[in-house]
């Protein structure tokens, strides 16, 4: 069943990857078309804005009769502002006067270009023409923007779908691998293990469930063989790789050890079975008993919760 789910998800991931490649190509093409349209549109906007600003400035100056005044006074003002520093720097009127005249001429030419290069009617005509160009280009720009927006949306949609499918596929592979490892643990000959080998088997089981596992000392362990930590749980475990029936003493020892190691729970795990009195004592003390019949449940996280999936 897990293999079928993984195969189905793998197929969906491959399909999504193909569609993602297609929408990425479309995105690149529409982005290039939009960038070109945007550049052309903004260039026309800039020219139109400059023309409109120049025309508005002329009308404002003419309204107050300042165009001729500025064109006349500015070169004279420039001459005065340049000649004095030039004379101070060069210590010669023969040098300062030509420099000041040159600056005045440059100022006059610049002002002529700004104020009189084109007639107002020509500026108005140019401005109207650029505005007409902008209006005619607007649908093309809007179409390029719309195409780019749709391509971007399609790319984001398919990318999100692809990431979700990849995440699901990874999760299913991890789950299948976890179940495979669980099945291997259950299939081991744990029923025949005694002493330390059984403790090591339980250590692997709890590591498989995602817990941190510490072994206690071989002697003076206070009835606790393994200390299990994970999440809000801390569990004292006594492992009983046993042939006969496990009695009360195991429950008493691990219950005392739980307090000694400051754990929140205690459990006795055996590959055998428990006596009736051991079950009664465990029930009154809140001690978890896991016998040989329940070890597969332990491996699959049904006795203690699995901490990672």
Folded structure, characterized:
By secondary structure, this protein is α/β, with parallel strands linked by helices. α4 (about 120-185) packs antiparallel against α5 and α6 (about 250-260) packs parallel to α7 (about 275-285). The protein has a five-stranded mixed sheet with strand order 1-2-3-5-7, sandwiched between helices. Strands 4-6 form a two-stranded parallel sheet. The longest helix has about 70 residues, at about 120-185. The chain has two domains: about 1-170, no CATH class; about 190-300, Trna Endonuclease, Chain: A, domain 1 (3-Layer(aba) Sandwich), CATH 3.40.1350. It has eight helices and seven strands; from the N terminus they run αααααββββαββαβα.
Set down the secondary structure blueprint:
Layout: H1 2-63, H2 67-90, H3 93-116, H4 120-187, H5 196-208, E1 212-215, E2 226-230, E3 233-240, E4 245-246, H6 248-260, E5 265-270, E6 273-274, H7 276-285, E7 288-290, H8 295-299
Parallel strand pairs: 3-5, 4-6, 5-7
Antiparallel strand pairs: 1-2, 2-3
Question: What descriptors fit this protein?
Answer:
309 residues; alpha/beta; Trna Endonuclease, Chain: A, domain 1; two-stranded parallel ribbon
